[in-house]
Amino acid sequence: MCVFYRNNNEELSVDGMSLGAIAKQYGSPLYVYSAAGITDAFTRFQNAVAPVNGKVYFAMKANSALGVLALIGKLGGGMDIVSAGELARAIAAGIKPSDVVFSGVGKTNDEIRQALACNIGQINAESQAEVAAISAIAKEMDLLAPVALRVNVDVSPSTHAKISTGERNTKFGISTNQREACDIYQQMAKDPHISPAGLAVHIGSQIRDLAPFERAYSALLALAIELRNAGWPVPNLDLGGGVGIDYDTAGPTDFKEYGLLVQRLFAGQGFNLGFEPGRAIIANNGALITQVIYVKQGGDKRFIIVDAAMNDLLRPTLYEAHHAIWPLDKPGISTSKADIVGPVCETGDYLGLDRDMPNLSAGDGLAILSAGAYGAAMASNYNSRSPAAEVMVVDGAAHLLRAARPIADYINDEMIPNYTDIPE
Length: 424
Prior knowledge:
alpha/beta, TIM Barrel, 2 domains, 9-stranded mixed sheet, 8-stranded parallel barrel, 25% strand
């Protein structure tokens, strides 16, 4: 059942609160998250991997709101980060650095120093050059760096090209095909400034078929066993994330089959396992609320122009992503197809195309569902628009996580050079 539902008055609601009432209080556009839904999704994922003692690290690139991170930390989750900025946010949310995994292909020397200085739990290195940089910085700081090696097992996840990371033609990981990963891991294990933490893999995002996971995990396990049998320590296997969700119904994700797959492959193998779900925990537990500004009939097409735009939710423009869109009030009978578009000056500024929609008027509210992941986290102030605020509903009450930033604040951040020597 979708976490967003219609109450007795047919108003779209979450955790006992009408979304229309929340928008009336906090304005529009507005992100609304369900604490109960996040708790349920995280707990069910955690339970699915509990038989193999899996540790869950939330992929905070999906949603980095401090209120979301703090909730997941309270539930026992760590964080998977990809920048020093995300590290700072994780710590600000109360996450212990030892419960943080630092992923990503382009960590700078300053980022590596910051991670090592706070005793981060694990750094996933993705190239021989990065391993060398970590070793040199660890030597300079007189400490041991906990480093896992991210491998590329050349497995297609059969998902969108822009979120596919498991094939050899992508920038991610070190190939296992020519034994490059095996050789680099052995060099890491011999390095006096590195504590070898194990191996990592992540083949992509929004994966609905378990077969690519099985191929990737089997390849990872074979390499780990080979290294261990050769006498090298391989304490941890980081299995990444990527479990897909249902964007059509925005209902909860079933993690049972994924958990059974992991158990079948890894139970009794003697490795500590890490998991990095992001979208699967947060996407269907967040919605973007928007208000109709105008309805315009253009030739054979109806345009519903709303106050949310691609600067608030980029996924439809960037990935051709589909999000279910529901009226906030009692839905009428669909009258015709319509494009739901924003005010940004781009033809690509749309939230949904060719949708069956009822008659709508200025002031009516809509909810773009499954927007909890890669929504607010990817927002910008393009067209000098302030991104949507964020609210969390906790125990039947709405709490502001982040207010919409006034445009005056953006302007005050900027400076104008002295142009006195330039003639008017």
